[in-house]
């Protein structure tokens, strides 16, 4: 077979449904990435308070900025980034900042203590924040352009109450978000969320639930092997190994994993990753925006370990993931088509 034809066939296979990952580039500057965002012509990577901006066309570094601190143009803790049509919104502890897409500073505002995330839509924000009311809660609210709370949509008791002696602690919830941040759960002025097995579309304009549908997703039982994976991680991790004995006494595993490990609202579709693994591939359910199941399939998301996750995202029906090449000590960008 002609070498050019063979190359074409291989590329065609990689990107047309065989779910084979292809390493498209390496990022030598990146140390320990937290999140990955792919836009139409740029790639954004966050690492603590450092932000990298790359060209999607040739993967060249366009900008890197790192400003850790509490002063102007600085980030107190790790930063999360949301790509807007003509700017970047960067959330960090107690502050929201705006930069051009080339990484030039525009403005910043201080936030009330407790605001964790702000998702932009129009001239308002959907906010996730902590509140204390005889217990600790995670609330979801609508904030105006001056970051003042306008309407509270919901509040849920936090999975662990520090003030309650001997309280139970769910190790799976403690593991935190899967694969980084950067995915905005908003489409067509509607906020999508899971609520006790029901996926709800909340109309942010009319301030009410527009529609909902049950998540017909198989429950995944937490096995003894799963429990051991989590316990071994906390036992060895530098942040928890010295407190492991006391943590273990509080650990209480649920009977089943949560229905959703991570969700994306992309390209008028809802992508839901579950905790089910088969042949080193992760189960995904793909729904249309109204809740019709389009497809269920297994995709090759690379696992780092039970808790730490390699960052990944979805863009134009492809999955992009940063994977650590330990032999070459460099981060590689894997890409594969979902269909």
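^ Assign residues to that structure.
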């Amino acid at each position: 077979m002609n070498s050019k034809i063979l190359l074409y066939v291989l590329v065609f296979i990689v990107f047309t449904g065989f779910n084979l990952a292809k390493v498209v580039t390496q990022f030598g500057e990146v140390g320990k990435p937290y999140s990955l965002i792919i836009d139409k012509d740029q790639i954004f990577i966050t690492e603590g308070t450092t932000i990298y901006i790359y060209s999607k066309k040739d993967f060249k570094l366009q900008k890197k900025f790192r400003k850790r601190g509490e002063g102007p143009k600085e980030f107190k803790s790790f930063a999360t980034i949301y790509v807007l049509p003509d700017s970047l919104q960067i959330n960090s502890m107690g502050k929201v900042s705006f930069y051009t897409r080339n990484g030039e500073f525009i403005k910043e505002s201080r936030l009330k203590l407790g605001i964790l995330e702000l998702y932009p839509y129009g001239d308002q924000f959907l906010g996730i924040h902590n509140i204390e009311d005889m217990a600790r809660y995670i609330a979801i609210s609508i904030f105006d352009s001056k970051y003042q709370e306008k309407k509270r949509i919901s509040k849920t008791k936090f999975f662990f109450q520090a003030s309650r002696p001997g309280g139970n602690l769910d190790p799976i919830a403690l593991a935190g978000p899967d694969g980084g941040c950067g995915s905005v759960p908003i489409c067509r002025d509607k906020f999508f969320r899971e609520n006790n097995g029901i996926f709800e579309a909340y109309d942010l304009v009319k301030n009410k639930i527009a529609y909902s549908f049950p998540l017909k997703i198989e429950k995944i039982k937490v096995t003894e092997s799963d429990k051991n994976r989590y316990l071994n991680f906390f036992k060895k991790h530098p942040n928890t190994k010295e407190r492991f004995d006391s943590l273990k006494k509080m650990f209480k595993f649920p009977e089943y994993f949560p229905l959703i490990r991570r969700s994306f609202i992309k390209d008028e579709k809802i992508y839901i990753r579950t905790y089910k693994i088969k042949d080193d591939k992760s189960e995904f359910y793909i729904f249309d925006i109204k809740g019709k199941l389009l497809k269920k399939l297994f995709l090759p998301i690379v696992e780092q370990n039970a808790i730490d996750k390699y960052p990944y995202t979805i863009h134009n029906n492809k999955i992009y993931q940063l994977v650590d090449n330990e032999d070459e000590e460099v981060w590689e960008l894997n890409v594969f088509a979902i269909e």
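Residues 1-18 have pLDDT under 50 and may be disordered.
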